[in-house]
From TrEMBL:
Spans through the membrane: 21-39, 45-62, 83-99, 144-165, 177-197
A cellular component term, taken from the record's GO annotations: organelle membrane
Protein name, per record: CDP-diacylglycerol--serine O-phosphatidyltransferase
Molecular function terms from GO: phosphotransferase activity, for other substituted phosphate groups
Domain of life from the UniProt record: Bacteria
Native source species: Roseateles chitinivorans
Length: 205
């Protein structure tokens, strides 16, 4: 019986998979930066967190192009890509929003909905990719907005941080609903999540 070689899983990674891991690394780095901001109050760490999301998008774009260029893709690579996207474009933007001041109970529910929508959207994509590709190596369109569109939300949060509109100064203030706090700005995440799980068709470029 042949025993698997040490680190055999790592040995099986394609070049594109390493770029996918770069995506995940950026997402985790963004989470750490928000934690540092919450500990120190230094806004520069929010800037770092926001900057790491477009960096993650660069890795996300490159991994797909490299896979097509080298004509090497796998089910594992697709799953890696989805898991990395959940971190970088789902969890990280939600945590950045929390760091910016969306910390009320209703805010947390909306942010949780946003992340759950992103997870659901990626799961749906994975199980329908084969049928949507119509026999080619690339799907013709997305159902629902892709989760990397959350970069737009991160840009909004970066501008808010740059203008000092975080915490108590968050744009549109806060309202009380049922005794719990809702920051209206968080509704952007509700809209984004709803679009991700919608059935609208978006051509894939």
């Amino acid at each position: 019986m042949n025993r698997p070689k040490p680190f055999s899983m790592i040995r099986e990674f394609h070049l594109a998979d390493w770029f996918t891991l770069g995506n995940a690394f950026c997402g985790v780095g963004a989470l750490f930066s928000v934690m540092t901001f919450l500990q120190t109050g230094l806004t520069q760490h929010l800037y770092y967190a926001c900057a790491l999301i477009p960096a993650a998008l660069v890795f996300d774009v490159l991994d797909g192009r490299i896979a097509r260029w080298r004509q090497k893709s796998s089910a594992m690579g697709r799953e890696l890509d989805s898991l990395a996207d959940v971190i970088s474009f789902g969890v990280a933007p939600a945590v950045i929003a929390y760091g910016c001041g969306m910390q009320g109970l209703w805010d947390r529910i909306v942010l949780g909905f946003f992340v759950a929508s992103g997870v659901s959207r990626l799961a749906r994509y994975n199980i329908t990719a084969e049928s949507l590709s119509a026999g080619s190596d690339k799907v013709a369109y997305f159902e629902g907005t892709p989760i990397p569109t959350s970069l737009l939300l991160v840009i909004v949060l970066w501008i808010a941080a740059w203008q000092g509109a975080i915490g108590e100064a968050l744009w549109f203030g806060a309202v009380k609903l049922g005794g719990f706090t809702l920051h209206p700005l968080v509704l952007l995440f509700a809209v984004s999540g709803s679009l991700m799980i919608s059935r609208i068709r978006i051509p894939k470029l």
